[in-house]
Amino acid sequence: MTKNRNDADVDFIKALAELLNENKLTELNVKREYGENDSLNVRVSKQMTPPPVAAAPAMAAPAAFAPAAAYAAPSTDPVDAPGAVTSPMVGTAYMAAEPGTTPFVSVGAQVTEGQTLMIIEAMKTMNHIPAPRAGTVKRILVADGSAVEYGAPLMIIE
């Protein structure tokens, strides 16, 4: 490589950097061919940092305007509740056998051990989730049609 070509390559890279900034790009990849088995591969990139956001001071909402969910939510993680029923798989939760039909259970319902609580669809297979014990459904923690993860709390039965 000659001195002139090296200077030309440096100028080329500087021009790419300017092009990156002028067009608000984050990355450019260019291959410059000089001949057989002779090329220059250039990758110019910059990391975009979002502008700092000033955090608003935390303020408690007046009781009259607090969301209703705030009253129903327990102070502990639902998965730690003694009657938590957790998901045995990853999938989509359905509360009824078919859309528009009555859900398997609702809050306040008495269930027996083995009774179907919901269905989790995983890989086009409908898996019935049975009640692990008899009791009363205290909370349903997932919405119909929502995605669930393995071990995620589905409902509380006490």
Automatic annotation (TrEMBL):
GO CC term (a single one): acetyl-CoA carboxylase complex
GO function terms (MF aspect): acetyl-CoA carboxylase activity
Pathway connected to this protein: Lipid metabolism; fatty acid biosynthesis
Domain Lipoyl-binding: residue ranges: 82-158
Function text: This protein is a component of the acetyl coenzyme A carboxylase complex; first, biotin carboxylase catalyzes the carboxylation of the carrier protein and then the transcarboxylase transfers the carboxyl group to form malonyl-CoA.
Lineage: Bacteria, Pseudomonadati, Pseudomonadota, Alphaproteobacteria, Rhodobacterales
First and last residue of the signal peptide: none
Keyword presence, Metal-binding: no
Record-given protein name: Biotin carboxyl carrier protein of acetyl-CoA carboxylase
Entry-linked InterPro entries: AcCoA_biotinCC, Biotin_BS, Biotin_Carboxyl_Carrier/Decarb, Biotin_lipoyl, Single_hybrid_motif
Pfam family, one: Biotin_lipoyl
Keyword match Lipid biosynthesis: yes
GO biological process, one term: fatty acid biosynthetic process
Keywords: Biotin, Fatty acid biosynthesis, Fatty acid metabolism, Lipid biosynthesis, Lipid metabolism
